[in-house]
Design a protein that fits this description.
The chain is an alpha/beta fold and about 375 residues long. It contains 15 helices and 14 strands. The protein has a six-stranded mixed sheet, with helices on both faces. It has a five-stranded parallel sheet with strand order 2-3-4-1-5. Strands 6-8-7 form a three-stranded antiparallel sheet. α12 runs antiparallel to α13 (about 265-290). It starts with 6 loop residues before the first helix and ends in a 6-residue tail after the last helix.
């Protein structure tokens, strides 16, 4: 339905991994892009059982002088296949494309992802650019950007089914936790930390598990690519900073479905985290797809001044604050002003609900929808960036 902006991936001759959460469209893209490849789907029970019992039998599915691609879908289900992949790359020059929703099971086997013989790429939910004219900010903030959301008759029902079927099933399949109930409660509790600092002690109390278990659960969400922790930007700091991690689920629709709401919850609180999440998932995807050499952090002083995202890398230094407000207030750019004072090389942007782009000294104020559409250009512009 949507063309994916993965041109760089399909033109690579070397073998590669394509990781991404379930439901982001890895299989659909692979079948459309490498439609003449030999395709080994490890979600097929007969093939899975055979290769699990005898990994070396994979060679029998590949003709002796075959020069095309071999696609192995969900390779983390049979990690031992990587030994065969390694052997066939070396002995026959076979080119593999391997998908997975987690590298955890592969690393546990000590294979280290073929020690550089295969590149590693990631697939994310749809980007604003990929959606094109189908992008509607309010809809995105409610249901997110998983591809099937745009096909489902009831997007909300699909998201809840996704959480039930995929996220918890993934945990069960990999044997990562004995208590699905406890992990489910953790996911719900962690949603209150979306776009905020992690308080592991508080989450442990609310989830009914110990702090060590909570820390393990956060690691699981990252290993399954359904969550990500964001570290503080501390380079050459001139102030006392908060240095704990912030947390995001990978898709705003998944966050909204996990986040309970009731009479005591302020809509602005949930909507603010939703917009920040949408910006975060766009930044994460575009950095991968565009090959931008930069890392994402946040910045917060002990006195409460904050910048939601700091992108720092080769030729790129951006400070981005996100507010779900229709009108800009002076307080909305206070953190950016302080950050720019310490780091005048940075380009500082406020993303909010204004209807037209504004300039307040060194601070650019962007309408949220315009910013999201222009983000690829912003990330690749040079000259005004450090």
């Amino acid at each position: 339905m949507f063309a994916r902006n993965l041109i760089g991936y399909q033109s690579v001759n070397q073998s590669f991994f394509l990781f991404g959460p379930r439901g982001t469209g890895k299989t659909t893209w692979l079948k459309a892009t490498f439609n003449d490849a030999i395709y080994l789907d490890l979600l097929r029970s007969d093939l899975y059982t055979r290769l699990l019992a005898s990994p070396d039998s994979m060679e029998h599915f590949i003709p002796p002088h075959y020069t095309g691609r071999v696609v192995i879908d969900e390779i983390q289900r049979v990690p031992a296949l990587l030994n065969e992949v390694h052997r066939l790359i070396e002995a026959r020059g076979t080119s593999f494309v391997m998908t997975g929703s987690s590298a955890r099971a592969l690393r546990k086997k000590g294979v280290n992802l073929l020690a550089g013989r295969a590149l590693t790429y990631y697939m994310h939910p749809l980007t604003v650019a990929e959606l094109g004219d189908h992008f509607q900010l309010d809809r995105s903030l409610k249901f997110g950007h998983l591809p099937f959301v745009f096909k489902a008759e009831d997007p909300a029902d699909y998201i809840h089914s996704y959480i039930q079927t995929y996220l918890r099933e993934e945990v069960l399949q990999e044997g990562l936790t004995r208590s699905v109930g406890a992990f489910t409660k953790f996911l719900e509790t962690a949603s209150f930390s979306q776009a905020g600092l992690i308080n592991a002690t508080e989450i442990a109390r609310e989830s009914g598990v110990d702090r060590k278990t909570v820390e393990n659960y956060f690691q699981i969400t990252e290993d399954l690519l359904i969550g990500k922790r964001l570290s503080a930007f501390t380079r050459r700091t001139k102030r006392r900073l908060i240095v704990g991690d912030k947390f995001f689920f990978f898709d705003v629709g998944v966050y909204r479905a996990l986040r309970p709401s009731g009479p005591l919850d302020l809509p602005a609180e949930i909507d603010g985290a939703a917009l920040e999440t949408l910006v975060f998932q766009e930044l994460t995807a575009l950095i991968d797809y565009l090959g931008v050499n930069a890392s994402i952090h946040y910045w917060r002083t002990t006195t409460g001044a904050e910048v939601d995202f700091v992108l720092y890398g080769e030729g790129l230094f951006l400070a981005i604050e996100v507010k779900r407000t229709a009108r800009m207030k002076a307080s909305d750019i206070a953190g950016l002003k302080l950050f720019h004072k310490d780091y005048p090389q940075a380009r500082a942007l406020l993303v909010c609900g204004v209807s037209q782009k504004e300039y307040h000294g060194n601070i650019e104020v962007w309408p949220a929808e315009t910013f999201l559409k222009e983000l690829p250009k912003i990330l690749t512009q040079t000259g005004s960036l450090a």
